[in-house]
Amino acid sequence: VWLLFEYPESSGPARGIAIVSVLVILISIVIFCLETLPEFREDHKEPVPVASVNGTEPYFSSPFSDPFFVVETLCIIWFSFELLVRFFACPSKAIFSRNIMNIIDIVAIIPYFITLGTELAEQQGNGQQAMSLAILRVIRLVRVFRIFKLSRHSKGLQILGQTLKASMRELGLLIFFLFIGVILFSSAVYFAEADDPDSGFSSIPDAFWWAVVTMTTVGYGDMHPISIGGKIVGSLCAIAGVLTIALPVPVIVSNFNYFYHRETEGEEQTQYLHVGSCQPLAAEMDDGRGVRKRSSSSLLSKSEYTVIEEHRALNSSTFKQQQNFSTTTAATMTTVTHNITANSISISKKIFTDV
């Protein structure tokens, strides 16, 4: 069960479950975006009372009839089921609880239950607001973290996460340098534009935004220097921003290449081991005449054929070397024996002649 839900490449059913999980994640993200359209959005959910007749209580509109809420509920059911199955099937509960991906899974489903509890409390309170709208918006915003669930099924996102984790020192230096540059250039442009009445830099904190936008080479244009001194400061700020951002980029790219090639080589090694140890290279049968035939269901790929040919060539070369060595050894022994025999005959003839 753990392999079925955690490792999509382990089997066909596991791959099918991974595809279903990705589709549910995409549907949830699409619903999250579509429900903010003006024609679907309800900024003020007021109760819709029905005319009270003979003391009948007014009827309040229920959010549970909303199609978006129904689809969201189905997605949450799948997310909860998947999380619970993986939790109870995992070998180590402690490691499972510390995994960042599992924490993201929990954070992604919590807003639904909070919103559900709020809606139920409002219905029991006859439509009274149970929670601040600002808090509700923040809670609903957390749902966007579901997009990170895709990284469980995407090697590219996993490599990107590993790259950022390995480059935290470089990213920290980048942020530190940007912070220093923002302080310096925002102060410089404020004092350079202080004498201009039409200047948009009313204070140094207001100039922070301009410095960040300029150093990152975005340049929205909502704030810009007017005087010559301010333009000089802006030019220096842009040049410093380009240099500051460009310095740590090679290190980050190097880390990305390292993790990418490691992942690629790991996949190739896994495939090679899978061919060599997990799957039999040949399903052979004896037909009773000493001839071994391959089963029709066993088909070799190009890589498997290459491996077999390499082993066959290696074995053939080894056998030839052993055969040559045996032939040479036999010839040498024959020569030695012949020489010994000839010497013995010569000695015997000499003794006979002497006698």
Tell me the total number of β-strands: 2
The helix count comes to 12
The general outline is flat
Give the overall average pLDDT.
74
Largest sheet: 2 strands, antiparallel
Radius of gyration: 39 Å
| Amount of beta strand | under 5%
- Between the first and last Cα atoms, what is the distance in angstroms? 98 Å
What's the architecture of the domain at 1-44 and 63-153, going by CATH?
Up-down Bundle
Secondary structure: helix percent: 55-70%
Task: Record the strand order, biggest sheet.
Answer: 1-2
How does this model look, in words?
The chain is mainly alpha-helical and 355 residues long. Among the domains are: 1-44 and 63-153, Voltage-gated potassium channels. Chain C (Four Helix Bundle (Hemerythrin (Met), subunit A)); 162-265, Orthogonal Bundle (Helix Hairpins). Helices cover 68% and strands 2% of the residues. The chain has helices spanning 2-6, 12-34, 67-89, 93-98, 100-124, 133-141, 155-166, 168-192, 204-215, 228-246, 249-278, 302-354; strands at 284-286, 292-294. A two-stranded antiparallel ribbon has the order 1-2. Helix 2 runs antiparallel to helix 3 and helix 8 (168-192) runs antiparallel to helix 10 (228-246). The protein is flat, with a radius of gyration of 39 Å.
